[in-house]
Every structure is written in C-alpha cells, then in structure tokens.
Amino acid sequence: MPTKNLEAVDILEALESKLAYVPGGRDREGRPLIVVDVPSELQPTTKPRLEVLIAYFLSIFSEETKKNGLVLIVDARRGAWRVARSCVRLSTVLLGSYGASVVVVRPDGFWDKRVDSCTKSHKEGEPQYLTLSRLQLHVDYAQLPYELGGNKLYDHAEWIQKHILDTTKRVHELIDSVELKQLDIENSWSEMERNLDIARVIGDLEKGVSRVTDWILGPADAMLNSCCQVGFDVSSSEELRRRHEELELECRETYGRYAELLHKIDSLPSTRSSEDLKSQRDFMDFVCRSFANRLERRRNVLITSQRFFRLVSEYFDKTSEVFDKLVMGNRTHDFSQAAINLLKLQQSQTVLETLERELVKEGEKLSDILSMPVKDALGRDVHVDYGEDIVNVRDILDATNARKNIFNDSVELQKLSLKQISLIYTYESDAEQAVKWLNDLYDVLLKNHMEIGCNAIEIQAQKEEHQTFQETAKGTYDYGCQLVNGARVLRLSCRLSLESNATLFSRLRQAWKQLRSVGQEQLTRLRVCAVFHRSVDDHCSQLRDLIEAVASLRRSLKPEDVTAEARAKAEIRDILGNREKLLLEVGRMVRLGRLLRTRLKEPLCHQRMSEAEDASGKGSNLTAVEAISARLAEVTRLAEKLDAKLCEAGARTRPVTMSSSAMSSTSSLFSSTSAPATTTTTASTQIQPVPSEARSIAATTIGVTAPLISSSVSTVQLQPKCVSTILTSATVSSESVATSEPMMSDLIISTAATVSKNVEENVKIDRDLEVEVKQDVGLDEPVMNDEKNEDVAEMSE
C-alpha cells in the first residue's frame, strides 16, 4: 500500500493497536528491528492495520537504511500458529526485498510437539523459528525491549507522540513547499503575461520610432530646407523669426513623442527584442538630435540677425540724436552748463562706443555663423547659399565704421570746446575767489594787523607775521593772475570776447594794489619803528657809557697831579667829541620819534570815517605812541644827565648846529615806496662858526634857551639842569683858575673845532640812517622795478 494514500487517522489507529512497532534496537549486524506482535485471534482489522503499519515503518526509514536491510521479529508466543503464520507471510510480503531476516518467536511448548531434522540447513529469506532464549544469538539483550526479554526502554505511547510531532512538522514543511511551488507557478504565469505585454509594447514602440524617424527625415527636413533667409532689416528678421517659431511649434508634438518613446524604451527590461528596439531608438535619437541642432542653429541665426539689425538701427538713431542735441545744439556758449554738457557728451560717447562694439561683435558673429556648413538630420551636407546676406552684413559694418569715425571726430572737437569753456568757467570762478580772498585779506589786515609793538622784539615778531601775511597775499594774487591769464588764452583759442576777462583782471589788480599799498605802509611803519627802537636803545646805552666815563674820570681826578689833570682834559675833549656826534644822531631819532607818533595816529589808508573812528576808538597804536614818548623821555633824561655830569666835571658845552637836510632825510623815510627817498647833500650846508666871544673864559657861556627837542629849528641844543655849564668851579681857587686858563682856552677851541667837524658829518650820518631804514624795509631796486612795471602794465591796459 503506498504511503501517500494512507490517512493519518488510519496510521494513528494502527499504531495505537500496537500490532507492530519499532523499538529502536538493532541486530548484531546493525540492522533496525521491526517487531510484530501476533494477536491471539485474527481480527478483520488485523490484516489492514498490519499493512498500514508495515507501509508506515518503511516510509520512516531512509533509502540507505532500507537497502542495508530490515530485521522482522514476529512475537507469536500468545497467538495461534495459524494466526502467526498468516502474519509472518503478510509481513514478509509487505517488506519485500527490504526484509533481510525474519525471526519468529514461539513459546517453548511449541517445540515439544515438533520434530526437526538436525541436518536440515536454513535458507536465506525463510523465517527462523526461535525461542525467546535463543533470540540473543541474533540480537543483543540491550537492543531488545522488555517484552522480548531485553532491557531496552521503550514507551510505545511516547514513541507515537514523538512521531506525531515529527509528522506534523513534516506536514507543515510539505505545506510550505507546496505553497512555494504554487507561488513559483503564479510568478511564472505573471512573467509569461508580462512578457506578452512587453512584446506588445515593443511592437507599439517600434511603430512609434518608425513614425518619428520618417517624419523628421521627410516633412520636417523639407520644411527646414525651404527656410534659408536671414532678412535685411529689423522687420524682415522679425518676420522670419516668427515663421521659425511656427515651425518649432509644429515640431513640438514630434519632440514630445520622441521624449516619450525614449523614456519607454529606456524603462524596458533587457531582452533580445528590447536590444533590437534600442538600436532603432539610437538611430531615432541621432536623427532627432541632428534635426534639433539644425533647428537650433537656424534659430540662433535669426536671433543674431534680429539683434544685429536692431543694434544697427539703435546706433544710427542715437548717433543722430547725440549729434543734434549735444554737438550742433551746444553752439551757444553757456559757461555754467559747459561741465554738465561735457559730462553728458562723455557718457553718451561711452554708451555709443559700447553699442558700436556690440554691433560689430554681433555682425561678425552673424557672418561667421552664415559661413559655417549646414548638415541635415543624417549628417549630410546641405547646400545653402548665404552669400548675399554675408555681403549685406559686411556693407553695414563698413557703413557703421565710417559713421563712427565721422561722429567721433565731431564729438572730440565738441569735447575739446566744452573742456576749454569749462576750464574758462573754472579759471574765472577761481579768479573771482582770489579777488574775494584778497578783499578778505584786506579787511583782515585793517582789523587785525594795524598794531605796532612797544619794543624791538615785539615789532620783529609782528614784522615776520606781516611778511608771512604779505607772502600769502602775493601767492593769492599770483594764483589769480595765472587763472586770469589761462582763461584769457583759452578765450583767444575759442575766439570768445575778452571784455569780462579784462574786467576781472582789473578787479584783481585793484584788490591787489590796495592790499599791497596798505601792507607796504604797515611794513614800513613796523620797520621804521624797529629802527627807531634799536637806535634809541643804542643811544641810551652810549649815553650811559659816557655818563659812567665822566663819573669815573671825576672820581679819579686829583688837583695836585698836573699830569693827571692834563690827561683828564684830553679825555674830556674826547668825551665832548663823542657827545656831539651822539647828540646829532639823538636829534635825528628824536625828530623821527615825533614823526612816528604823528604817523601812527593816522589810518593806514583812506578808510571811511566810521572805520577810522572805530580804529581810533580801539586805541590800536596808542600803546606804541606811548612807548615812543617814553623812549624819547628816556633819551632826553640821559642827555640832560650827561650834561650835568660834564658840568660837574668842569666842562662847558656849545649848541650843536645841524643842517636842514637831517629833517628832510628823516621825513623821507615815510615817503612813497614807489620811488627811493633821496638825501640831498649840498655844499651850502651851513656850519655855525664858533663865536669869538667863546675864547673869553670869564664872560662866555654856551647855553640853550630853546626847548630840548624842537622840530621848528635846525639845531639841537642840550640844556643841563643849570642854565649853562661853567667850565671853572666857583670853589676853585684863583690859582687853579689862573693855571688852568690857557688849558681851558685850548679846550674851548678844540671843542668848537670838534663841533664844526661833527656838523660837517651830519649829512653823511643822515644818509647812513636812511640807507639802514631802506635796507630794513627791503625797498630794493628789483622789487621797485617790478611794481613800476605792474603799474605801467595796468595803465596801458
């Protein structure tokens, strides 16, 4: 009975009957044991159950085990022989070739009734009838269960349960394998259906590829071959581009199908049919790409052509506009707008140059594209004649270049004119500013630079500051002159009127002249005051030295020493001579000081009355006048002190005669700086002779009855504290007077001669003083000549 036809219920029922079982033991040759327990009576279910059990046991063992053989032990100890024999036969048949040995166990009483031949041999395949005690000859006790006299543990119920679990597991495994096989079958069926669908899709794709390829190689290529013009102006190029866009719209549907086919073909699985389709797809891709490149080239040609003609039109229009507005429209000279117009012209020129470069670039690009060969969708050369279009582009480029040259020449000339006019405006504006600066400097000079110091140090500092101020003013004037001259040259170059330029130059000169005159006046005052203070300081020092010399001579004089007395007389004569020379210079400084006091109270220029009153109200030079008065009082005091000392020493003084040229030379220090002051030295300079009465010692006195300093007379007289200086003291004895009379007479004669000599040197000293002042003032000939030349130039203009 095949095992596959058995049901689990039948097998389980048969196993539970324990008609046969596998105890798990092996014979001495290692073959598995199958035990059949013969029932006492033969039942109708005995044979079917035995068949089920034998078939089940054979399914349990592996093929290798069954090939080695199985040992069948039939336990017939409780059953009848008839039943045992039937079970043995059935089991032997069921085992078939797998039954290696059949052992039948009979009870011991069975052998008492049988007679066996001792000489009979056992045949292979026949059952062996043994007692239980002899069973150990074939199977070890350890391999036999308790039922057969062995000691092997065997629980039939447990064995059944275990095999039920094993069978259940195998059943599940079989179910899983069946499901897997079912899945494989379903997958194979789906794959077959999918292959059929793919085959149908491949057929449809091949048809689509063929349609796309045929359309591109046919109608599309023919339509593109019919379009070979690029236009000759903006409107024609726009019309051609519009037609080309219509052609692209017609090709858009084919491009869509082409892209869809590519996507579908690329998504197909790799099969032999798909490989053939992919080769067709590659050809379609090549054809479409070639046609698209040609279509793109045509579109680029039309775009470049349209852009080129638009740039040409724009360039010609803008050049005409700029030429009309900024070149021809700016013939009227608006100086204030020249810089703005120049900037506009430069910006317009820059824009036009950029536009012209783009135009030339686009023209050359269009010419190069038209010169390139054209290929169809299969890569074959297509003859397209663009000769006329290339010649047209070249002619337009040549015309543009000629227009550019003419336009640039006109623009450069206009730019030069505008630059000159702009520079004229700038120069004259800056010159106006220079005039304003000079006027401001003039106001500053009148307000802040009118003071005179009280001593030589302050005056020197003021003089240096004033010189710096004058240098600044001179630099401003020179700067303005350069600007005016530059504007004049540019006006001559542009052929413009010179009237406004001449007016501006006149204003500049006028501002400079008034500033220069006032500045020179102030500088002259500073320098003359500096000469005055230095000279007075020197005179005071010399008078102090003479006073000290007379005082020391008087202290060292001894009446008994004749030699010392004679030496003292000689020294007194020298002192008197130095006194007379010094008093001449002092007299000039006194007159100069009085003149300075008067001059410093006057304004620097012809100011308005209110300005003069304000300046006098501020008392800007009152301190300087007071300082001059103090210096005059100081030198007068020292002169009087010197005369007093000489009188005490026993000397007499005479009036010192001065020429009138001393006063004129002093006054000339404040004369106009345009011409040098001259000191006239005439031969008629009068030197007052010593009167004959001077030789009389008793009655002759030399005194001064006029004031100490007088500008109304030409003589300077020194007046001691006493009315006259007595050459002989009243306390001296008559002997001393008698012995000293000849000597005093000689002293008076010597004094008169000294006075006459000093008077003759008066003019020379005056001249030296004037030269010193002029050198300090700096009125040298080159400066004077420059100023004269400027005045002459102004008058000539």
Structural account:
This protein is mostly helical and 797 residues long. The protein has helices at 8-16, 46-60, 63-68, 81-95, 108-112, 156-225, 234-267, 272-327, 335-371, 387-448, 456-494, 499-556, 562-600, 609-618, 622-649, 661-667, 734-760, 762-777, 781-796, and strands at residues 20-21, 33-37, 70-75, 99-105, 128-130, 374-375, 381-382, 656-657, 715-716. The strands form three sheets. A five-stranded mixed sheet has the order 1-2-3-4-5. The longest helix is centred in the first third of the chain and has 70 residues, at 156-225. It is elongated, with a radius of gyration of 77 Å. Residues 657-685 have a biased composition (Low complexity). Residues 303-405 form the SESTD1-like spectrin repeats region domain. InterPro entries: Spectrin_SESTD1 (IPR056804). Residues 657-687, 778-797 are annotated as: Disordered.
List keywords for this structure.
phosphatidylinositol-3,5-bisphosphate binding; five-stranded mixed beta sheet; single chain; 4% strand; phosphatidylinositol-5-phosphate binding; Spectrin_SESTD1; phosphatidylinositol-3,4-bisphosphate binding; 19 helices
Write the layout of secondary structure elements.
Elements: H1 8-16, E1 20-21, E2 33-37, H2 46-60, H3 63-68, E3 70-75, H4 81-95, E4 99-105, H5 108-112, E5 128-130, H6 156-225, H7 234-267, H8 272-327, H9 335-371, E6 374-375, E7 381-382, H10 387-448, H11 456-494, H12 499-556, H13 562-600, H14 609-618, H15 622-649, E8 656-657, H16 661-667, E9 715-716, H17 734-760, H18 762-777, H19 781-796
Parallel strand pairs: 2-3, 3-4, 4-5
Antiparallel strand pairs: 1-2, 6-7, 8-9
